[in-house]
């Protein structure tokens, strides 16, 4: 139990630190925005590049991990989407709810948690999951929201807008560029590699503090019952689905199987709230789900780490 506490508590201690600093107004409301920008545009891309250039293609190519992780995401996503669409008759709001129930915080919590659990040199699964989450999973949500909000636009125009947005996302562009560079067989110059490593080292603590700053912001009013429903699906149902497929259906290295479950058991990331703010739909449910899943995620992640 002490070993589990040593893994989980440092992660959530930094989240609490950010929360307290914001509540005591030591860091202003602008700090959350600016720190998020630093993490998204500099620190996390640098960490991904560092992992990519120091990993082999054979290590990162694990299709079974992809299948297990994404099955868990899409079963929850489309299940919630169908039920809430029928219930509310509002496809945009249903999409936000579905994203809140399935969008794991792979970047801000997943990477540092896996580094503490498995070691900083074994972040391949976490990086792959982060790329899947911010690209494939996020893209599906954006396409559905665009389709519901831009009924006058063609499917081609919608897909084009989504494609441009994804290409501009540094969390997608950085590993793609790093992968292309690795394919050439070249190596980063020592000075550049050290700069990337130093910058990447700031990703985990800054991301966790930024999560705390976000959670300290005023939460919009929303139905507690719906938020609790989404939290249970995120913290309990999704990792159970992934556990079954990772350990009983697909064959993959033990590190990747364990990582798939842990990454699926993560709290909801900030992506759903960002979409809700952008499209003006379901912000209250999204923010409450993120807050509750992060609080209760301490207990559920401890259980999964103990079991695995």
TrEMBL record:
Key word Nucleus present: no
Pfam family membership, one: Mem_trans
GO biological process: transmembrane transport
Keyword Cell inner membrane tagged: no
Keyword terms, alphabetized: Cell membrane, Membrane, Transmembrane, Transmembrane helix, Transport
Topology relative to the membrane: Multi-pass membrane protein
Transmembrane stretches, start-end: 38-58, 65-86, 126-145, 166-186, 198-216, 228-250, 290-307
Gene Ontology CC: one annotated term: membrane
Record's subcellular location: Membrane
Matching InterPro entries: Mem_transp_PIN-like
Protein name per its UniProtKB record: Transporter
Biological source species: Oxalobacter paraformigenes
């Amino acid at each position: 139990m002490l070993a589990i506490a040593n893994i989980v508590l440092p992660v959530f201690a930094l989240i609490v630190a950010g929360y307290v600093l914001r509540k005591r107004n030591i860091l202003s409301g602008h700090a959350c925005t600016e720190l998020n920008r630093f993490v998204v545009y500099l620190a996390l891309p640098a960490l991904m590049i560092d992992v990519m250039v120091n990993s082999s293609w054979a290590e990162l190519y694990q299709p079974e991990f992809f299948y297990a992780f994404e099955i868990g995401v899409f079963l929850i996503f489309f299940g919630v989407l169908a039920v809430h669409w029928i219930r509310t008759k509002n496809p945009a709001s249903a999409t936000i709810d579905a994203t809140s129930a399935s969008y794991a915080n792979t970047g801000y919590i997943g990477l540092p948690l896996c580094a503490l659990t498995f070691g900083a040199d074994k972040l391949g699964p976490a990086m792959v999951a982060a790329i899947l989450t911010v690209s494939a999973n996020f893209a599906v949500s954006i396409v559905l929201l665009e389709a519901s909000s831009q009924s006058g636009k063609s499917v081609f125009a919608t897909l084009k807008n989504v494609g441009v947005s994804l290409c501009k996302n540094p969390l997608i562009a950085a590993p793609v560029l790093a992968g292309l560079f690795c394919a050439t067989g070249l190596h980063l110059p020592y000075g550049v590699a050290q700069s990337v490593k130093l910058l990447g080292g700031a990703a985990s603590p800054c991301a966790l503090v930024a999560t705390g700053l976000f959670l300290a912001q005023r939460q919009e009013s929303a139905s507690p019952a719906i938020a609790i429903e989404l939290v249970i699906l995120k913290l309990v149902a999704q990792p159970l689905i992934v556990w079954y497929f990772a350990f009983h259906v697909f064959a993959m290295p033990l590190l990747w199987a364990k990582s798939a479950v842990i990454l699926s058991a993560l709290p909801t990331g900030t992506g759903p709230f960002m979409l809700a703010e952008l499209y003006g739909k379901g912000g209250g449910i999204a923010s409450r789900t993120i807050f509750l899943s992060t609080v209760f995620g301490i207990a559920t992640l401890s259980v999964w780490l103990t079991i695995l």
